[in-house]
Specification:
Elements lengths: L6 H10 L6 H21 L31 H7 L3 E2 L2 E2 L7
Antiparallel strand pairs: 1-2
Helix pairs in contact: 1-2
Amino acid sequence: MIGKISKKEVEKIAKLARLELSDKEVDTYAQQLSAILGYVDQLQEVDTKNVEITSQVTGLSNIMREDVVESFDNSEELVKMAPENQDNLIKVKAVFE
């Protein structure tokens, strides 16, 4: 059985997602996520021994094109249009702390 999601876990998930949640929202999301995991837990009880493995049912397949690097003549102008740039590169917020 999958356990309930604690408020502390919801706060950690919110921090990772950079969400600011009120105490009421943390309570609500803890209940909702626990309910979702309860449904997933019910699916674990379904007998699938005789069910054929299916990765997709439409018969469609991806048509991939060759990955080709294309030059862009005006890249300096493009970099200048970014809110922040440094050394001819676009500067963005750090992803990791």
